[in-house]
Amino acid sequence: MKLKRNCRYFPGDRPCKFHKEKGIICSDCPYYSPINHKILIIKLGAMGDVLRTTAILTPLKKKFPNSTITWVTLTSSLDLFQGNPYVNEVLDYRHDALPRIMTEEYDLIINPDTDKLSSSLATLARGKKKLGFGLDSKGVVFCFNPEAELWLEMGAFDDLKKNNRLTYQEIILNICQLPKEDYPIVLNLLPEELEIGKRFASENLLSGSKRILGLYTGAGDRWKMKSWPEEGFRGLIKKVLKETDLKILLYGGPDVQDKNAHLHSEFLNSGRVINTGTNNSLRTFF
């Protein structure tokens, strides 16, 4: 029996999923898929930006249909990739990413971030072609390709960023030399997770509602000063309840537990403001 080690489904340290689930061996495997084009994406944080950057996956697969995609990110973003049909492997930066990217060789390396950590990883990684940003020997961020220069300049000059009218996805797609079409983010919910959503909708009488407004009342740790105060949300909710038939869902994490409890209590009698809870896991939140 010949072991086909160049198959994208071969993990190396354990049986592949097709052998485990169906008992298939390499010589008779109809799922054999040799690794032809290896792509490395380095996108660490923040979590919302990681999710937005998944918009490059669909056009990447269209351009390189036989590719194998590896994504390096932080522990907090690993759950974003459960059920992702395009990413073959997700590496945790704090665990196995560094030795892997310094050992393997990639056909294409993409780093859309100008921070020095991501840029240094992109420089260390072994690749035939690199897009986005790297870090030179003096610790200075530089562009691998001309399409990345606009994003670097926007990060340096406030006036350029304020005058920008391109979406984040358009900018990143341009850096990646991909067509700037309206590609969606990639987030796949598992069947059991969809059931959680259906039960929640049924329990809160949302199943027949065509119009629902979700209010996320917090902000990321990096942008605490951008969080709208409770008074702002209170005024908005009053206006929405008065002028529309929308039902309102309050979202957030532990940092806005009191804020959401206050807002929910104040508008409880309306029957249209629902507190979704502030201790949900990331996947339950989705």
The overall number of domains is 3
> What fold name stands as the CATH topology of the largest domain?
Rossmann fold
CATH homologous superfamily (4th level) name of the largest domain: Glycogen Phosphorylase B
Q: Under the CATH scheme, which class of the largest domain?
A: Alpha Beta
Task: Classify the secondary structure makeup into a structural class.
Answer: alpha/beta
Q: Which range best describes the helical content: under 10%, 10-25%, 25-40%, 40-55%, 55-70% or over 70%?
A: 25-40%
Task: Please provide the count of β strands.
Answer: 9
Q: How many helical stretches?
A: 12
**How do the helices and strands follow one another from N- to C-terminus?**
HEHHEEHEHEEHHHHEHEHEH
Q: Beta fraction of the residues?
A: 15-25%
Low-confidence parts, pLDDT < 50 over ≥5 residues? none
Principal-axis shape equals globular
Mean pLDDT: 91
Largest sheet: number of strands, sense, barrel closure: 6 strands, mixed
Describe the protein in words.
The longest helix has 14 residues, at 230-243. The protein has helices spanning 17-22, 47-53, 57-63, 93-103, 116-124, 149-156, 158-163, 168-175, 191-203, 230-243, 257-266, 282-285; strands at 37-42, 67-73, 89-92, 105-111, 126-135, 141-143, 212-216, 247-251, 273-275. It contains 12 helices and 9 strands. The chain folds into 3 domains: 1-33, no CATH class; 35-175, 3-Layer(aba) Sandwich (Rossmann fold); 191-285, Rossmann fold (3-Layer(aba) Sandwich). The protein has 286 residues and is α/β, with parallel strands linked by helices. The chain has a 6-stranded mixed β-sheet with strand order 3-2-1-4-5-6. A 3-stranded parallel β-sheet has the order 7-8-9, covered by helices on one side. A hairpin with a 5-residue loop joins strand 5 (126-135) and strand 6 (141-143). The chain is globular. Helix content is 36%, strand content 17%.
